[in-house]
Write a structure and sequence with these properties.
This protein is α+β, with helices and mostly antiparallel strands. The protein has helices spanning 2-17, 21-31, 165-174, 199-207, and strands at residues 43-49, 63-64, 68-77, 80-81, 86-92, 98-104, 110-116, 127-137, 140-151. The protein is built from 4 helices and 9 strands. It is globular.
Length: 216
Amino acid sequence: MKHSVFLILILLFFLFSQFLPMFATLHDWQVIGQTLEYQQEGPNIDIFTQKGGEGNDVGSPPFSLNDEVTLYARVTYSSFPEQNKFVAFQIFNPYGGTYVLYGETNGSGVASETFRLPSTETTGNFGFWQVFATVVVAETVVNDTLEFHVRFNLADVNGDLKVDIFDVVIAGLAYGSRPSDLNWNLYCDIAEPYGFVDILDLVLICGEYGEQWSSS
């Protein structure tokens, strides 16, 4: 029965995707004439994970319990890398706990630290985690914030502790999108390659259809 539901959902996704190009065209006018790469003036820090989140105050795709998270912080001055700078990563979990990791920038101006998410399946570990990165460059304190969602199952797109039709619909709306698109949804970007909601994300969600978290 589960395999039949899986095939039906995949078919519906492909049918739905025929209507998605209209969403992409809405965004085209916004990027015409704009410079996508620009010179960052003065000191700057950009924090991201192995899954993404590059750009100031940009979130990362979600993680599951017991996943290993690698934090990166790119430190620059007017877009040039800053070496041998100590970066503090302050991590806040959903239930109010906090701890700090430290890293030093390398020749490319990037510091990195790795930690593992809790393995205990309690609702206190699910939800939004936040990382606050701080560094001093040219006697100026600069920082950046990163947020990511932790779930019992990556396919639980809306975080309601079950994988159902609502997750399927949300992913369908985001299908084919990238971060610059109007229909982009970071929480649907759950399969590699990250930065694009494609058929691999949809297959993962459909394959987990019907799963739900239980405290027992």
